[in-house]
Amino acid sequence: MKFSGRLSALQRVQYRRYWLGSFASIGATQLQIMGQGWLVFKLSGSALMLGYLGAATAIPAIVLTLFGGALADQLNKKAVLMVTSLIVALLLLTLAIADVAHLATAWLVILIAALISIVSGLDWPTRQSIFPLLIEREDMMSAVALNSIIWQSSRMMIPAIGGILIAYTGTWFIFVLCATGFFTMFLVISSLNIPTAKISPAPAFASTMQKVAEGLRFIATNKTFLVLISLSYAGMFFVSSYMQLMPAFSNLLEAGETGYGYLISITGVGSVVGTILVGSLQESRRLGRVILVSAFLSGLSVYLFSAATGYAITTQYAYPLAMVAGFTIAMFVSIFMITSMTVLQLQVPDKLRGRVMGLHGITYSLMPLGGLLTGFVSTFISAPAAIALNATVYLVIVITISISQVQIRRMDGSAFSPVS
């Protein structure tokens, strides 16, 4: 099968199988996030409890990712992904049983979210280090974009369907589907045929802590990695964290279960559009400006979402405006994440890929952790005001980097080569 351009990575048979299989587990993750959020808010009615759920989702993954990246460079990557997929499937099945038996409490949901987060701390860096083994170097932008499409397209379709399913069946059914998705990924990973030398590196004698320290030193001493990873962290913590409180925003908008699903889905639509717009920017001479401008516009768009939800009672256009804002935020976040991650994947040495990209993977755990801060702040001011405050902090960071980091602003995509 012949593919080219944005789809070139799909001509690699093993990557194509991995990519198609990833729809199952990533779609399950999208359902899991919305199902857990809705159930916790239903059981507690508290934005702060949603923040606690975010902390439980984020903190274990952040801590474990520090070591997970080092382990991903040393362990059999295929075996690791098989085990993590199976464990998550069992945890979600346990949650489904507790939910249908009316034994679930907000704290039980949070506990299971924390256990899944622990497993994800090893799963995510392993995923980031295994997919480059399934492609050729010239397919990297294609593979990064295709990986993003999985997340964004599933976020576009799955939550809308999930909202309807919650309304007519309940969250327990959502968790059963999630368990099925992760078990499907287990079967797909087990079918991959990857040379043992690639997935099982020679045993290393350095301790795990030394391996982690080596990855941290690499980032600290390479300005591009330090700035882009720091900006990615800030973006997820201050901008995308509004997603963690989406059940509360849905309540303000009086949108119900289906409206909640559509609010999440529209962010998936925006992300897919952003992925398409990225196009072939890998070699753009203005790549640095694209990265910084997209970061700035994502933060600016949060103000519109804040205004829509803050004045929901006084205007009939609140829900449509919130949908437009969610679309715009996600589109610019997508452009920023794909372009910046491609830069990092092209420059990171293979021997450090698991650790460095694992540390970059902490980015995604900071979204729910930012939700804890936002949920806490919203107990003093409104949730819409809290996310507007977050956006202001982020815009200050982006402007500071744009002014002070000339090498990022002038980044030329055609000039990249691996760092030795």
Give an overview of the whole structure.
With about 425 residues, this protein is mostly helical. The protein has one domain (about 5-415): MFS general substrate transporter like domains (Growth Hormone, Chain: A, Up-down Bundle), CATH 1.20.1250.20. Helix content is about 80%, strand content about 0%. The protein is built from 16 helices and no strands. The protein has helices at about 15-45, 45-70, 75-100, 105-130, 140-170, 170-190, 195-200, 210-220, 225-240, 245-250, 255-280, 285-310, 320-345, 355-375, 385-405, 405-410. The radius of gyration is 20 Å and the shape is globular. The chain starts with 12 loop residues before the first helix and ends in an 11-residue tail after the last helix. The mean pLDDT is about 80.
What does this entry show, briefly?
With 420 residues, the protein is mainly alpha-helical. The chain has a single domain, classed as Growth Hormone, Chain: A. It has helices at residues 13-44, 47-72, 77-100, 106-130, 140-168, 171-191, 196-199, 208-221, 223-239, 246-252, 256-278, 287-310, 318-347, 353-377, 383-404, 406-409.
Low-confidence spans: pLDDT under 50, at least 5 residues? Answer: none
Total number of beta strands: 0
Mean pLDDT: 81
Assigned CATH superfamily: MFS general substrate transporter like domains
Number of domains: 1
CATH architecture, by name, is: Up-down Bundle
Shape: globular
